[in-house]
Design goal:
The chain has 253 residues and is an alpha/beta fold. It is built from eight helices and seven strands, in the order βαβαβαβαβαβαααβ.
């Protein structure tokens, strides 16, 4: 039995990486999915592939730092599928630099995409979920939201904010039967991780080898993170809220 039957999920950054893996997994588990992404070409491709496989999906072009885009994404879920049960705030970016090497504009951009987007999406999703009797929000954190990392000060700050924002939201919205949790991945084989190699000026193979230096001796695949999101989003986690789930191969152990 599909565990997300009759549910609708909105996934930001759903056109690639962990977001795309989550879209595909949720659709396979019976959910109608709203794919929100700034990349129209990839987003429409994901929409087509889900529909061709017999699933329900719609793509929404969305800049998650813009309130009107976030509101439109939530409205699309309600208009197309009649409800919104799950919000996965997945969209994110990374800038690899310390405070001296980070410009003010770069700092603001990282905070806007990684933190402000969660505020905006949740602001519009919570009333819908409350009206229908509850829902589940999963925020994308990071192992570097739990502990510090080298030359990534804006990213670490943003993910630390996401972790504590999740706790605050869980307290605020629990009485509305809205669960709010955070998944904190370790290094995962996504386009963003490979872009980090470019940012730090390392050969890709060397960078990925270092990313695998953790107790399980490997980095994650996107589906492994998606499976954790599925757990937190589903009724299997019905008494779980305010949780910070590290899915990092032991990187923060």
């Amino acid at each position: 039995m599909c565990i997300l039957n009759n549910k609708c999920a909105l996934i930001t950054g759903g056109a690639s990486g962990i977001g795309r893996a989550t879209v595909e997994l949720f659709a396979k588990e019976g959910a109608a999915v709203v794919v929100a992404d700034i990349n129209t070409e990839l987003g429409k491709q994901v929409e087509r592939e889900i529909q061709q496989a017999g699933g329900r999906a719609v793509f929404v072009a969305c800049d998650v730092t813009r309130a009107e885009d976030c509101q439109r994404a939530v409205q699309t879920a309600v208009e197309r599928f009649g409800r919104l049960d799950i919000l996965f705030n997945n969209a994110g970016i990374v800038r690899r630099a310390d405070v001296l090497g980070t410009t003010e504009a770069e700092w603001d951009r990282v905070m806007d995409v990684n933190v402000k987007s969660i505020f905006l999406m949740s602001k519009f999703a919570v009333p819908v979920m409350a009206k229908q009797g509850g829902g589940s929000i999963v925020n994308m954190g990071s192992g570097w939201g739990i502990k510090g990392g080298r030359n990534a000060v804006s990213y670490c700050a943003s993910k630390g904010a996401v972790v504590n924002m999740t706790r605050a939201m869980a307290i605020d919205h629990g009485p509305l039967n809205i669960r709010v949790n955070c998944v904190c991945p370790g290094d995962t084989d996504t386009p963003m991780l490979h872009n980090e190699a470019i940012q730090v000026g390392q050969p890709d193979a060397q960078f990925m080898a270092e990313a695998a230096a953790r107790p399980l001796n490997r980095y994650a695949q996107p589906i492994e993170i998606a499976q954790s999101v599925l757990y937190l989003a589903s009724d299997a986690a019905s008494f779980v809220t305010g949780a910070i789930l590290a899915v990092d191969g032991g990187g923060t152990a």
